[in-house]
Design brief:
The structure holds 2 protein chains of 2 kinds.
Chain A (H helix, E strand, L loop, with lengths): L9 H20 L11 H31 L9 H19 L9 H26 L8 H27 L8 H33 L7 H25 L5 H27 L8 H25 L2 H37 L17 H23 L3 H26 L32
Chain B lengths: L6 E4 L1 H5 L5 H9 L7 E5 L4 H9 L2 E7 L5 E7 L25 E4 L7 H12 L5 E6 L6 H7 L3 E6 L6 E6 L6
Parallel strand pairs in B: 1-2, 5-6
Antiparallel strand pairs in B: 2-4, 3-4, 6-8, 7-8
Classes of the chains: A mainly alpha, B alpha/beta.
Chain lengths: ~450, ~180
């Protein structure tokens, strides 16, 4: 396997995630979800196509690709990547369909019950690969590695709380107070798993794209310790919930920690930004700054969200998922796919024939337009939720859908090398999403 | 002290598919734990590999089994471990390489430009010549490409952690 640091199934994970994103946007556009209408089965299906299908898939795929870079060693157990993808995708489809059981489609109840097993299997397989790669004496010294491992603990809590809610909603076993479990589930997912994993990966990714020196940073240790406290409290609260004890204190403390963690993280990113050697950052970094602004705004909205609830909580969660996590992911995904495609096709040709610049694989203007459209959709959606305006929310989803379609089109163009002149393209194009392999050349090894 | 179980790599399926197994063998060699041997199963005696693996600090023992399959065991030579402080995968004995004939300052270049510059320069070197490069960061995607082309490398971060120092010794061929 040439290119041992290219994880073979990354693009399949990204492709699957993008299909779920388009499905979530399409269903929301058809009216399956809207302001103050999230508890219906259809609304929950849309939310989980977005969170589990889009964001979790893209984060799991990104981890499989970047964990070897974080640890500077090859990915452990790479053969688990495909079974994990199949299990996680099947689990997402099961769950989305299973939620429709709540709207009276009784025949879908078995799917609802299978979903936690399938998603749990997918998560476990990825966690095994990530932990087996990262768990060494040398790498555990790095705060970003510990942060990713902490995110996996939050993922376990997210899965457990989700599974308990499925059992409650389906009337299978225990009866949990959903009003108490739901905020725990959301905090573990958005604040614990997705945001902490994004923090850990972004340290390395931002330093790489900005050419900032890698330094041991006390700020990162502080972020890790505060985040560890938060995740520990949330997991403890989850266990207390099972013994029917009060968990209100845990939510209060965690919500108090969130602004601290966000502030520390934004300070660390500012430090990386200021120490960069690259004078003019590229589009992926400029749009990541917009994502960081959304993070700040989401944290500000989380406070009235906790005390007042209702539209404030909806807006805060929407901005965290659509503004912060998705804008960051989409901006970086275009760059990552360009880079992986370039490595796959052109690395073996360096020094043997001219190779194009990575930047030539994508159309920067088209990407910027789509990311602007996405950000406008995030702002519009947030305002629409605050005003409880269904029409405004529909407009926001339309903007998000257009942006997602545009970015998918651009990603396909990158994989097909469409922006290159004919003489710069190889005779055989890489497959859109199937394994990353390089054209092989006979070197050294002949019979 | 007990030796770790050898890692077994059967390259026959790769060759049957018409693919080149060199990269898989190098990846397997990189994945070995300290002291672990690599047992290779091949449909023929992979003689060109012996020299490459010897340069990486492995002794080799080969035999043809009764079923015609060649079984080669590459055992790490005691004392040939990578020098302390060198990155995982660095060639042992880099301290005894000749002085570099070419030096590249690649600080401030965005990836993958440093990789392009190094591979272009290495192609121009005579076998055995050494190139030195200073980079912002560890060039993770360059290493498999160097191994694939039969070049050796050794690298580490400067003490300040703000630059990566890399030596590349040109292999016998790079067409």
């Amino acid at each position: 396997m040439p290119g041992k640091h290219l994880s073979r199934w990354t693009l399949a994970w990204f492709g699957s995630a993008l299909l779920f994103l388009l499905a979530a946007c399409g269903l929301a556009l058809l009216g399956a979800a809207g302001p103050q209408d999230w508890s219906r089965g259809a609304g929950l299906a849309v939310v989980h196509l977005f969170t589990l299908g889009w964001l979790c898939h893209v984060m799991l795929g990104a981890l499989i690709q970047f964990v070897p870079v974080l640890a500077a060693r090859p990915l452990a157990l790479p053969m688990l990547a495909l079974p994990a993808l199949i299990a996680a995708s099947a689990g997402t489809v099961d769950l989305a369909l299973g939620f429709l059981f709540l709207d009276g489609h009784d025949a879908l109840r078995p799917l609802f019950l299978i979903a936690p097993f399938a998603t749990g299997l997918g998560f476990t397989l990825v966690a095994l690969m990530v932990a087996a790669t990262l768990l060494t004496h040398a790498t555990l010294r790095l705060a970003e590695v510990r942060l990713v491992l902490l995110a996996l603990f939050a993922l376990a809590g997210l899965w457990l709380s989700g599974t308990l809610m499925v059992l409650t909603l389906s009337g299978t076993a225990m009866v949990l107070d959903l009003a108490v479990t739901r905020p725990l589930h959301i905090l573990l997912g958005v604040g614990g798993w997705l945001s902490l994993a994004a923090f850990g990966v972004s340290y390395k990714l931002f330093a790489m794209f900005l050419l900032a020196p890698e330094k041991i940073s006390r700020l990162r240790d502080a972020i890790f310790l505060t985040a560890m406290l938060g995740v520990t409290i949330l997991l403890t609260a989850l266990l207390l919930l099972l013994t029917e004890r009060s968990t209100a204190w845990a939510m209060g403390v965690t919500l108090g920690l969130i602004p601290v963690i966000a502030l520390l993280y934004l300070s660390e990113i500012t430090r990386i930004w200021q120490s960069r050697r690259r004078a003019a950052p590229e589009g992926n970094m400029l749009w990541s700054r917009v994502a960081l602004a959304f993070l700040g705004l989401a944290v500000l909205l989380a406070l009235p969200g906790w005390f007042i609830g209702g539209v404030w909580a909806e807006a805060a969660i929407f901005l965290a998922l659509v503004g912060w996590l998705s804008t960051l992911t989409l901006a970086q995904m275009v760059k990552i796919v360009s880079f992986l495609t370039w490595i796959q096709i052109f690395a073996p040709r360096i020094g043997r024939r001219p190779v194009p610049l990575v930047q030539k694989l994508s159309n920067a203007q088209a990407v910027a337009f789509c990311l602007a459209l996405w950000s406008a959709g995030a702002v519009t959606g947030c305002v629409a939720l605050l005003l409880a305006s269904s029409a405004g929310f529909r407009l926001a989803v339309a903007l998000l859908t257009l942006a997602a379609l545009g970015l998918v089109r651009e990603l396909i163009a990158i994989r097909h090398l469409s922006h290159l002149a004919a003489q710069e393209r190889p005779a055989t194009l890489p497959h859109l999403i199937l394994p990353l392999t390089q054209p092989l050349q006979p070197v050294e090894f002949r019979s | 002290m007990t030796q770790p179980t050898p890692l077994e790599l059967d390259v026959r399926p790769i060759i049957r598919r018409g693919e080149e197994p060199f990269g898989a063998i190098m990846a397997a060699a990189d994945a070995l734990t300290p002291g672990q041997a690599l047992r290779l199963l091949a449909p023929f005696r992979p003689a060109p590999l012996f020299n490459v693996m010897a340069n990486r600090g492995f002794a080799c023992r080969d035999r043809q089994r009764d079923d015609g399959v060649w079984e080669v065991v590459f055992t790490p030579t005691p004392g040939a471990e990578t020098e302390t402080g060198m990155a995982h995968g660095s060639a042992p004995g880099a301290a005894f390489w000749p002085d570099p004939v070419r030096e590249l300052d690649l600080i401030g270049l965005a990836p993958p430009e440093p990789m392009v510059r190094i591979l272009e320069e290495v192609t121009l070197l005579a076998p055995g010549d050494v190139l030195f490069a200073l980079l912002d960061r560890e060039p993770m995607f360059l290493f498999p490409e160097l191994a694939q082309r039969g070049h050796e490398w050794a690298g580490n971060f400067a003490r300040s952690g703000e630059a990566y120092r890399l030596l590349v010794r040109a292999g016998a061929q790079d067409d």
